[in-house]
Amino acid sequence: MVGRRARSGRGWDAIPPRTGDLPARPRRGRRGRSGPDATAEPVDDGTWPAEPSDGSSSSDEPPRAEPRDEAEVAREICLRQLAVRPRTRAELAGALARRGISPEAAAEVLDRYDEVGIIDDAAFARAWVSSRHAGRGLARRALANELRQRGVDSEVAGAALGELDEATEAQTARALVDRKLRSARGEPDAIFRRLVGMLARKGYPPGLAIRAVKDALAAQSAEAAEFADQIDADALTPDPDADPSLD
Q1: What's the pLDDT tens digit per position in 142-152?
Q2: CA 164 – CA 171 distance, rounded (Å)
Q3: What is the phi/psi pair of residue 148, to 5°?
Q4: DSSP string, 200-214
Q5: Verdict on whether the full-model pTM lies above 0.70
Q6: Which of 82, 83, 87, 104 is most buried (CB neighbours < 10 A)?
Q7: The domain that contains 100 carries what CATH number?
């Protein structure tokens, strides 16, 4: 009987080596770490935020800004208001109060603006009277009401209104009536009442308003002049609610 060949360790019938006979397989570190001291330590793959180097927690909120000085906030509010148009001290004080600025901080800022001339109620009143009279044809009574609504002192307002005399008011009233008459339609009586009411709403005294309309009608036509001759300026009272579309 022919003896069996010794197994060479190659081929299908090779006997697998025992575990203890295998050389130790080096462990490889993750993502590029190798060598005899390589370990399977995890590496930062972007899944979790890395810890800050200073030891603080990455979940800490950013530091809050220090509260701003109240006077600085008040100054910014005032400057934004003044960028639109000139304001009186009372208007600026009201704007600051609505924004929650304390009376003490508001007074500090407004006093300083008074000193340097940023706030000047007298100059404001003069400019307001000139602009509103020339642009809208407002008389002193209406202008005084507007200045009072804006907090201008009565003495300061009176000085500004004193620059608008009665002769100038009468001239402006007549110019307003002449302009409206060019497009007015209807009977002389209806036109008369509408124009007098228009002047009344602009603050003109009754006598001045009636005389201005009467004189303008007399110069318009023979029919209007005949009607105007019958008007008693001292006996009529203007109706301020008559056809406000003529304003």
Answers
A1: 999 999 999 99
A2: 11
A3: -65, -40
A4: HHTT--HHHHHHHHH
A5: no
A6: 87
A7: 1.10.10
